[in-house]
Amino acid sequence: MMNEIEIGRGKRGARAYSLDDVAIVPNRRTRDPKDVSVAWQIDAFQFDAPIIGAPMDSVMSPATAIALGRLGCLGVLNLEGLWTRYEEPEKVLAEITALEAEASRAFNPAVTQRMQELYNAPIQPELITARLEEVRESGVVVAASLTPQRTQEFYRTVVDAGVDIFVIRGTTVSAEHVSQNQEPLNLKQFIYELDVPVVVGGAAGYTPALHLMRTGAAGVLVGFGGGATGTTRGALGIHAPLATAISDVAAARRDYIEESGGRYVHVIADGGLGSSGNIVKAIAMGADAVMLGTSLARATEAPGAGWHWGLEASHPENPRGDRVKVGTVGPLEEILYGPSHHTDGTSNIVGALRRSMATTGYSDLKEFQRVDVVVSPYQAK
Fold it and tell me: How far apart are CA 50 and CA 287, in angstroms?
């Protein structure tokens, strides 16, 4: 039963919770953190930790995707970003990070306009092939992302280049897109014909997630405009508090397992996970893994050099994101595995997850999804 409240005489709405509204609580048992496993597997691919690097130019380059893979995680390359539009994207990245800003939030129409101009350069299929081959030659799992609008145009190039995991990522992705102007992507047919696992999203509720699972997706991204760079709530009035969204999609997964006779679809939280505490709570709410942007954009190796932005920031007609100053915390390995010198959850995020699981008595990620939680709103620092 959804907890609906009356907003006014003509409208009722469900009460939804963000990750800052909930907290996990200890139980009767604790464990040694060394006895806890945070390993994660999707399809035939195994990882040391449930961490996925978001396909954002400020986070993932071929080099950082390789580095993340060598650290036991998964990096997803954005195939609509600067790396597939320019032979030498480092020069463009340097220009973006040097654009004048009035504040740390950096809302500046001149910055947005220049980013729109830079991202207007055409995507070059030969660069898609070259970037993916660079990652493949390193020996790590190759993952790449396209938006639904670009998938039909470039997916064959991606598959021919040898991608291991294909991600279809947008602000929101539906199993049934209706258009009078163009032939929409038939997700079910597309995934059926593809020979690699496909992760799709974002989704923000039970019904849309269940429909995506029925397409044959290996994983569903959960989130909608909740990241540090997004302005979707202000621009479009659309927002999905992540704790409730993850829980709803996890319920869809449970029901789909029964409906399909045992097929498991991974739930991946995406957006609004800038601290280790929120990563812990996302998994406690039912996520199998997390897709990180801000956390990894703070790495010294990150292409954004302390700045962070998403593809939405350069949308030619309706930009819904800013270039945000997130600063630099330390090397990628320190951000993931420590040792940490920060008290705010910005480094040793895997160690924090392991310690939270040990403190509450759980030995692996699937068990930890059963941890007790309470509604306990607080003002996040």
Answer: 10
